[in-house]
Structure formats: C-alpha cells, structure tokens
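Hi P.,

Sorry for the delay on this. The queue was packed all week, but I finally got your sequence through. Input first:
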Amino acid sequence: MAEVLIVDNDKHSRKEIRKYIEKSKFRFLTIFEANTAQRGLVLLKQSRPSTLILDISLPDMDGLKFGRSALQLYSDLPVIIVSHLKMFELVQEAINSGFSAYLLKPLFKNDLYQALERVLPLGLNQELHQTIKGNSHFSSDLKNPIESAIQFIQMNYGYSLTLKQVADQVYLSPSYFSRLFKEEVGMTFVEYLSFVRVQKAKSLLRISCLPIEVIANNTGFSNPSYFATTFKKLVGKTPSEYRDQFYFQEQGVNP
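Then the structure:
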C-alpha cells in the first residue's frame, strides 16, 4: 500500500517527518504513526506499508529488533532508521539486518527525500503489479496462524474470500479462527478484509488512472456500487472525490 509507518516515541520527530512528507512530492503517501513497538506491530499487521521509518530507541523494544521483526512479516519492506546515535556498530548492524537507510537526527529533509526516492519507486511498482496481478505463493506457518492468514488475505484480497476459506488455509475451525483473529488484529475478519481492499483501492486511485470500476473489480468488490458505499464508509469520501483531491493538489488548487 502507498503508506508510510513512522514508529518513534518522540512526538516532535514524528511531526517533523510528517511535515516533510506532506510538503513534498511524496504527499500522496498515507501516514500512520506509533510511539511504541507494540502499537507499531499492530499497524504493521493491519496494513502492509510501503515504507517503515523507525527510531531504534523505543520504550518497549530495541528498534533494531523491531525492524527485523517487520522484515520477517514483509521481507521486501524498506526500513529507514532515524536515530541520534552515531555509533558505527549500530549502522553496521542496521545494514546487516537488511535495512534500507540509516539517517541521523536532527533529520534533514533532503536526506529523507533521497532515501524515499531510492526505496519507494520499486516498492510502489511492485505494489501496483501485485494489486493487478495478485500473488499465488503462500505457505501457512502453523505456529503463527493469524500472521499466515493476514499474508493470505494480502495476497488474495482481489478474489472472493470467506472466513471459512481463510480459516481452512491455516487449519483452524471458523469459530476459533474468528475469535483469535479479532483478538490479535483488533478487527473482525470482515472488517479487516474490507479495510485491506479499500487501502489497496486508495493506492490505485492515487498512483494510477485506471477506471474506478476496474479498480473495484481488481480489489475484490463485487460491483462498483458496493465498492463506493464501502469506500465512503471507511474513508469519508467517494472514490471519485478521493482521486480528485490528489489531482487538485497536483494542480495547486483547493477543491
């Protein structure tokens, strides 16, 4: 999804990064924030972001460990570290962990822009391809059934999915799967599936000129009317209104 997740317990730092992004060509990104690793992990599971921006000094977990956990969930997720710490060992560990960049605080906006420029185009191209083409490679991890279910949904949201179908993929009864899913994700299965589909649709509305009915079809909605109703319920705007707001921003016009 065309989103960035900022995990940093420093409110000023999060606000600064948000301001830099919103005043740049990357303003199409939807920004989510977390001040703890626990909250960040919930947001990661709920929505697979395009980029993770992460401070390594978190109150409830070592940031490097959190970054590695994020890569276990999404192996191709770009992870950008931002930190006051200038120790070479930390930079080396970040590189060895597979992170994409290590930026020092106070953060210079051009450094952030260069890092986003480097990691985002590939991620967004892959996202667009996966949204249209789908992904058929799935292997269930019996030790982590809900994470596996999330992975399966992220790969197959464009198809008709039922709770029973997904529960069968992770070898759980529908009733137990439903209860466990709500406990771990904080949404019901139906709420999460609608959330994922709408988030994917938002990405396509922002980064493509595809007709709305095509976007509806490719994100798993049975018809454009149901898509529009669900989209407005979750976003507060119709798909056309949502797309137009980005067009007007590009033109420097207030709609």
